[in-house]
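Students often ask what a holo structure prediction actually looks like on paper. The answer is less mysterious than it sounds. You provide the chain, you provide the ligand, and the output is a string of discrete structure tokens encoding the 3D arrangement of the protein together with zinc ion.
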Amino acid sequence: MDNCIFCKIAAKQIPASVVYEDDELLAFKDINPAAPVHLLVIPKQHIATLSDCTDAQAPLLGKMLALAPQLAAQHGIAVQADAEGERSGGYKTLINAGPDGGQEVYHLHLHVYGGPRPWRGLGT
Ligand code: 5GP
Ligand code: ZN
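The corresponding structure tokens follow.
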């Protein structure tokens, strides 16, 4: 898609700090991180918004979400449990859809936020 910044990142036409790539997905660091770890997972194929997705995209969406724990482990933000079962660490996943959802870039993306708080503008 012409003039889509994330298509250009997927095509390596503009640089990004890529942390994961396969034939369908790309993950890279957000240029303006709202948390100590802030990654974006995108499909390489242009899909403008979650609202354009149907059951046909369910496997792709599942793959995007299932990548989050792998990325979290690689970036030190996995959910941990000690011997007593007390949990620590962890991360937030988010997809903004449309203006009221706060979407600014119209190429589907999953945010993965983590690391020590405070985080900017994300509530709890
Ligand atoms: P949205 O508000 O659409 O859910 O999130 C868009 C995100 O993309 C924002 O967090 C913003 O910082 C990030 N972003 C926008 N342009 C670029 C870019 O050129 N490179 C990277 N790495 N992130 C970008
Ligand atoms: Zn695109």
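The pocket of guanosine-5'-monophosphate (ligand 1) is lined by residues 5, 16, 28-32, 40, 96, 102-105 (CB under 6 Å).
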